[in-house]
Amino acid sequence: MNTRSPRAPRSRRTLRLLVGGVLVLAVLGIALTLVFRAMLDPGEPVDGVTEVAVRDNEFGPAAVEIPAGTTLAWRWEGEEEHNVIGEGFESPNQVTGEFAHTFADPGTYAYRCTLHYFMRGEVVVSDGDSALRE
């Protein structure tokens, strides 16, 4: 008499498929997290830059370090509409032109383009000229 159920091989196969699917989803989730984290990180600030290019889907450089009292200009160089929005400053949506803001107080100011989620940048404002001393 055969006591093996005809469903047993199918159950094992289903279990293997489920475990495999969960593993694939976990690896995919980790990979996407790392990619998105890298895309949102503006990187190390570049000292002394007073102009940032607004290109199609990126700021260049995305992170700058300037002394307090410096005016930073964003210049549109791409073909898409963008804006620059940060704490205490906001440009209009535009395709060409320039926008400038003077950073009077030391601190770190994050900014972004609200039209393109991954376009983010950072301005590090130092006290006096300490950003240029190295």
UniProtKB/TrEMBL annotation:
InterPro entries from the UniProt entry: Cupredoxin (IPR008972), EfeO_Cupredoxin (IPR028096)
Cited Pfam families: Cupredoxin_1
UniProt domain EfeO-type cupredoxin-like: residue ranges: 46-125
Protein name: EfeO-type cupredoxin-like domain-containing protein
Species the sequence originates in: uncultured Thermomicrobiales bacterium
